[in-house]
Amino acid sequence: MNKDEVPQDRKIIHGQDNSLVKVLYVTDQSGKYETTKYAGWDAENLAMSQAWDDIDDKIEQTRKKVISGELSPIAYYMEKSLMDLSTLAQYVGIWKFFVKRHLQPASFKKLSKKKLQQYASVFNIPVEDLEHFPGQQ
User: What's the total number of domains in the chain?
Assistant: First the structure.
């Protein structure tokens, strides 16, 4: 792609004016590669916006399940951190089987302070956020 053909459509990502730009490799008029700033193009921006909407919906559904007692707060923070079971298990340093058990409220309530601290550390939150989830009774 030539430098003068790079689309520069202004983008809004995740509900905020995004001033971040990407770097794109392009050819200059003599055919040599160079970098240029790239703000994106409408189709890409629309796809990203829709993807973030889906992620936000999934996080909200998980939050409601935590409040209703179907899942533990670990499930919410895992979704919010865009992690899956395998990733979270690796960060916490335990088997995926145990993480899956800790997503259940009954098993979560039995976790030690040390284990809660491990999860809180991975999510970069205070332990109190796990113990006292907002909206939960």
Answer: 2
The shares of helix, strand and coil residues in the chain, as percent rounded to the nearest 5, are: 55, 15, 35
With the C-alpha atoms ordered 84, 105, 66, 137, is the resulting torsion angle positive or negative?
negative
Whole-angstrom distance, CA of residue 100 vs CA of residue 107: 10
For residues 78 and 118, state if they share a domain.
yes
pTM value is 0.74
- What is the residue range of 19's domain? 3-40
The stretch 32-45 carries a mean pLDDT of 78
80-99 pLDDT tens trace? 999 999 999 999 999 999 99
- φ, ψ of residue 25 to 5 degrees: the values are -90, 130
Query: What is the Cα–Cα distance from 111 to 96, expressed in whole angstroms?
Result: 16
Question: Which tokens go with 115?
Answer: 């284990």
Helix ranges (DSSP H) in 10-84: 42-67, 73-80
Length of the chain: 137
